[in-house]
């Protein structure tokens, strides 16, 4: 195993030439020439040679020109020492493979992996040459994986495998067979014929390549059609969704009135959640508390103290809020910001606070869900999801057949279609109406003039203020403050029957809301979870022929 620092060196292997000279006795004399281009300091190169189970590597040596280099061996790892800095060097390696040739009754073959999938270095240009003991024309030669269709047989019987670039992590076994008579002193591996089996193995590779080429052609043809069909499906789905949404918006704009504040079709906390990107912030708690004051369920005793006076008619999330603030945190049906601060200072209460907060949020979400503000398109979305998954599987098959342009197109369409299916939630008419009206309110309210604001009922003024507070919309809140400060508190704080508010809206509400907002923000920060935070290996795999293989590196 190479140490982790072995691949920290910046290098490229620009050229590798391997010459294998087959001997009559079955031994293979190998000469390898490796050209490395280094950027920065280096100590040498590494060659991993994993022999096949019935073979052995001996007499390993390394030279640069005529200078022999120091070699350290650790099992199958050879570390060749040659220090330098930002150089291009060529190192020659010499070794012999004992029993590298398998001899049968009719042929002898050299079937060898000079590298395998454990190799973590790319060879930019690799050539392997196999030379027989004597010249011959009786040659069978072919390669597997990256060596397939790279062989050239000369008239003398020499075979060259012109790999070109070989990426890391690839196999590339070579297989060369000659007549057995060329190896008279080699030991017989098996006394049986092997030529037919070798020829059959070569033909099997050729048949596989032909079949793959035919499949690739079929996938290329079908892939283009599939891409067009799914592009149309996605376009139709997007267009339909846009037209559906657009038709509702046009109808709503035609039915718009001069009424500034929308009617309260949902309780204020649910309205805030539905129209504010489904967010419920600490400001939303403050707005919900003051909304209970507006409705008369809660009485404001002082600027920071409240009393629950009526629990009748509360919806579920309001019940949870009242129990949370007035029963769990407060006492004697009263709640104050001082009590909240004292409660959250005790770490034992943090989990309960967050639990109640989550319960309150969940009840609001359930109320919005129960209001059926979204259309049920489950079947439509499931069909689109299944289509996208099918297209994704098809895109993988395109990649397997090296059709990468079609792969990228179909994968992109698959992701787009799946995303549409997951996020397509069209609102019902009521849902679209609520969303549209409150969006229009925010746009209009920013430019409202004092006379128009003065004409609003106390209830509408308070709803406008609390909506801005709960959504944490700075512009709406700022406008409310400007308008409220321009008027004095009414002489009577008691509402008329038409206002539906328990309190009149006046500038003191700004102070109360500010205190409530900052207090709940502080409580959330105090009780919330702590978000702070403290602060080329290489193993020979032997995945080539016969368990052999190897690779290259540097240190």
Automatic annotation (TrEMBL):
InterPro entries: DUF2207 (IPR018702), YciQ-like_C (IPR048389). Keywords: Membrane, Transmembrane, Transmembrane helix. Residues 12-177 form the DUF2207 domain. Residues 282-444 form the Predicted membrane protein YciQ-like C-terminal domain. This is DUF2207 domain-containing protein. The chain crosses the membrane at residues 218-243, 382-400, 406-425. Residues 526-536 have a biased composition (Low complexity). Residues 522-555 are annotated as: Disordered. Residues 537-555 have a biased composition (Gly residues).
């Amino acid at each position: 195993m190479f140490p982790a620092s072995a691949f920290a060196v910046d290098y490229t292997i620009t050229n590798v030439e391997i010459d294998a000279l087959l001997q009559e006795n079955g031994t293979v004399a190998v000469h390898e020439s490796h050209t490395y281009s280094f950027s920065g300091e280096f100590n040498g190169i590494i060659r991993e040679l994993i022999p096949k189970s019935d073979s052995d590597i001996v007499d390993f040596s390394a030279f640069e020109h005529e200078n022999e280099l120091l070699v350290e061996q650790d099992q199958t790892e050879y570390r060749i020492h040659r220090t330098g800095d930002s150089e291009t060097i060529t190192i020659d390696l010499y070794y012999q493979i004992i029993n590298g040739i398998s001899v049968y009754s009719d042929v002898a073959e050299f079937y060898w992996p000079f590298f395998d999938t454990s190799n973590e270095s790319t060879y930019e240009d690799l050539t392997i040459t196999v030379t027989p003991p004597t010249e011959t024309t009786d040659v069978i030669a072919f390669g597997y994986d990256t060596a397939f269709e790279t062989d050239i047989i000369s008239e003398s019987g020499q075979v060259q495998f012109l790999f070109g670039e070989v990426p890391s992590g690839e196999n590339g076994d070579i297989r060369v067979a000659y007549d057995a008579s060329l190896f008279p002193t080699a030991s017989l591996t098996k006394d049986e014929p092997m030529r037919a089996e070798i020829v059959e193995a070569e033909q099997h590779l050729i048949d596989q390549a032909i079949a793959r080429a035919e499949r690739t052609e079929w996938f290329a043809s079908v892939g283009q059609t599939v891409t067009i069909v799914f592009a149309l499906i996605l376009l139709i789905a997007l267009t339909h969704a846009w037209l559906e949404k657009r038709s509702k918006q046009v109808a709503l704009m035609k039915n718009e009135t001069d009424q500034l504040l929308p009617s309260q079709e949902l309780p204020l906390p649910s309205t805030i959640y539905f129209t504010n990107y489904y967010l419920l912030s600490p400001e939303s708690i403050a707005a919900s508390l003051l909304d209970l004051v507006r409705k008369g369920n809660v009485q404001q005793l002082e600027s920071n103290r409240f009393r629950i006076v009526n629990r009748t008619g509360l919806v579920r999330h309001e019940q949870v809020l009242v129990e949370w603030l007035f029963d769990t945190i407060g006492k004697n049906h009263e709640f104050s910001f001082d009590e909240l601060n004292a409660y959250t200072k005790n770490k034992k209460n943090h989990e309960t606070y967050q639990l109640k907060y989550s319960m309150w949020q969940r009840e609001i979400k359930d109320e919005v869900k129960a209001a059926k503000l979204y259309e049920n398109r489950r079947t439509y979305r499931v069909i689109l999801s299944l289509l996208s998954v099918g297209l994704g599987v098809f895109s993988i098959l395109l990649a397997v057949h090296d059709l990468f342009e079609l792969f990228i197109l179909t994968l992109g369409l698959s992701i787009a279609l799946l995303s549409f299916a997951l996020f397509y939630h069209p609102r019902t008419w009521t849902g679209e109406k609520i969303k549209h009206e409150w969006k229009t309110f925010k746009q209009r309210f920013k430019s409202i003039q004092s006379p128009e604001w003065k004409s609003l009922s106390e209830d509408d003024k308070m709803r406008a203020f609390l909506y801005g507070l709960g959504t944490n919309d700075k512009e709406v809140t700022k406008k409310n403050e400007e308008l409220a400060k321009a008027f004095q508190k009414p002489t009577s704080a008691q509402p008329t029957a038409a206002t539906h508010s328990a309190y009149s809206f006046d500038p003191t509400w700004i102070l109360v809301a500010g205190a409530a907002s900052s207090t709940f923000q502080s409580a959330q920060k105090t009780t919330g979870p702590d978000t702070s935070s403290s602060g080329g290996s290489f193993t020979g795999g032997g995945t080539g022929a016969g368990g052999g293989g190897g690779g290259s590196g540097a240190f």
